[in-house]
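Retro notes
What went well: the complex prediction finally ran end to end.
Inputs used:
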Amino acid sequence: MQENYLAKWLNNELSEEELATFKKSAEYASYQRILEASNKMEAPEFDVDLAWDTFKGNQMGNEPKVVPLRPFKQFLRVAAVVAVMIAGSYFYLSTLNETFTTDLAERSEVTLPDSSEIILNADSEVSFSEKNWGKNREVRLEGEAFFKVAKGKKFAVLTENGTVTVLGTQFNVENRNGFFEVTCYEGLVSVSYNNSEQKLPAGSSFVAINGEIVGSQGITATQPSWITNESSFKSIPLKYVLAEFERQYNKVVKTENIDVEQLFTGTFSNTDINLALESISTPSQIRYKLGDDNVLFYAENTP
Amino acid sequence: MDNVCEEQVFSSVFKTNSKTVFNFIYYKFGNEEKAHDAVQEAFVKLWENCAKVSPEKAKSYLYTVANNLYLNVIKAEKVRMKYADLHSNSISNESPEFVLEEKQFQQKLDDALNALPENQRTTFLLNRIDGKKYAEIADMEGVSVKAIEKRMHLALKTLREQIDGI
């Protein structure tokens, strides 16, 4: 008899001899009976259609329940982005600097959060962070401004040319293309310029032109002359004087055959243009021609 | 169509295989309720992974899932088989003694089936009741045809020994 002959017998895989031998055996009748009885066996009832309906009800029916969650997730995603943007812009705006600007022929007064005052000369700009003022008294300056600083912590004026720091004083800072001047009227200011630091006592000024320190000069005024509508100069190249004139009167200045590097000492009015023109031209021995929006300065001997 | 995600394909897979999955689990564990659950769970798994299963592979996937569901989890209970009363139409032909004896034999067969190891019982019943070929059962159980033949042989041998009271 071959291996697993009972399984082979069920499958009709026995050879005729094997089958004959098997049929003669004592157990054959029992096996035959088991087979007959097992043919009558039935598995428990199983309703395929009912099972399919159950499956569809559970499974396919589940899908609509899942789908509505997705738009919510989408919403959460958008909400998260919006929240980040709002938070970000809040922090951005809160650190954004307060900025004050004056135009040509304009002047403006700015009161800082600690009641320090800034008077802005024409064509100038200051900016500072109102939010961080308590921690950091820092002002960025372009142009020219007069500072009356309330006593308190360190107060710094940052310019691209140099930094001025004080504790409580009155001083003027002028920072124009290549021209940097600090004048202290009260207290003590410290000027750091090109990595060198200089203490400036009351009644003195610091001038640097094109990166070169021109020197400190004594002054007698208690506030800059422009506060009282005059522009004063002491040994300053004429081109800076003319630039100041342009700013004060909003006129385009043209020159002809004039040495703009010659030094000028004097004062011109910021309110009376004719007086100002005389004040500039007479000491420098030059002539001028006043147009609608421009002024031409030319050498006396030019026809 | 390379997978069973199409509802029509899936439905036909369900209709052809769900009864056998049910029987397969019932023969193993003798618990109808669990067998119904197994059908649902196996087809849920198949539906969830429908994109990964080709129609040809669906069948063995189902049995693998169904089998794994209750592996070592439930203890086999008594398998209660029903017997079609083939004699009901020819009552007069059988003596009451014969009918009684037949009933007793069926009872013995039931007891002997319950005493069988789960894998032998499943093989025997799948073959006898569901008419599954050895190769098909081998596929369902994930074993060789020879192993199924061995199980079948041992099942018959043990059943006879039990019934004959050896």
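What we learned: The domain at 229-303 of chain A is CATH 3.55.50.30 (Phage tail protein beta-alpha-beta fold).
What to try next: split runs per interface for comparison.
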